[in-house]
Design a protein that fits this description.
The protein is an all-alpha fold. The chain contains twelve helices and no strands. The longest helix has 32 residues, at 141-172. The model has no long low-confidence stretch (mean pLDDT 91).
Length: 233
């Protein structure tokens, strides 16, 4: 089966139409940013674009193609330097993806297979730069992929948790971390009162960066990169 990207590249040599895959993706991202993925329908897209309901089907076969275009469009926002050292490259990749997810939280609503394995030109370009930064270590291809996936898995887990917390706070109408902790205080008080979690209790009383999500992410990332550095020697 011909991929979406091959079809679009073949069509790019034709006369530029009034409606394009770029316009469709941009409109769809705007809808998802404001109303979530479930709000995206072909009819809603047609309305946003000011075209007939069937017009978009000249470029995409349905919502799956639209989601693929959206993922590619937003991943183009991530800036990973070309030719930098491996650690700088991986850090730029990780912090760039976190910023992307914070800006477009609907990315965490994608199905797990799509989130992990959606192959688009911009995602492949980021992976290529990450792989290229590891060329000087004489790694076999499988180990190189494992290093990349380790960083990607950390980013996916940490950002999903961060967006999940944001959504919980919105659902509960908690405006700050302090309000969230107050809302959860009954459960926490009972659990800590059992005496079973003394180390966690220390964090509750002594932790000073509970609401500094960027610091938490970047500190965890440094631990991941330290582990990779020890392996690479």
């Amino acid at each position: 089966m011909t991929s979406l990207w091959e079809r679009l590249e073949q069509a790019s040599t034709a006369a530029r139409p009034a409606l394009s895959a770029q316009r469709i993706a941009t409109a769809a991202v705007g809808i998802a940013d404001s109303d979530g993925l479930d709000a995206i329908t072909m009819r809603r897209l047609a309305t946003e674009l000011g075209v007939a309901p069937m017009a978009a089907y000249r470029h995409v076969s349905g919502k799956d193609d639209v989601l693929e275009l959206m993922v590619d469009l937003v991943y183009g926002e991530v800036d990973v330097p070309d030719g930098a050292g491996w650690r700088e490259t991986m850090r730029a990749f990780a912090t760039g993806i976190r910023a992307l997810v914070v800006k477009h939280p609907w990315l965490t609503q994608l199905s797990a297979p799509r989130a992990a394995y959606e192959l688009t030109p911009n995602r492949m370009a980021l992976a290529e730069r990450a792989f290229a930064s590891l060329r000087g270590f004489d790694l076999d291809a499988d180990t190189m992929m494992s290093v990349f996936r380790t960083v990607a898995a950390y980013v996916h887990g940490a950002t999903s948790a961060e967006i999940g917390l944001r959504q919980l706070m919105q659902e509960k109408d908690w405006a700050s971390g302090t309000e969230a902790r107050t809302g959860l205080s009954a459960q926490m008080t009972w659990l800590l009162g059992t005496g079973r979690y003394p180390t966690f209790e220390r964090y509750v009383h002594e932790g000073t960066r509970k609401d500094d999500l960027r610091w938490q992410f970047e500190t965890g990332l440094e631990h991941v990169l330290d582990g990779i550095a020890a392996h690479l020697g």
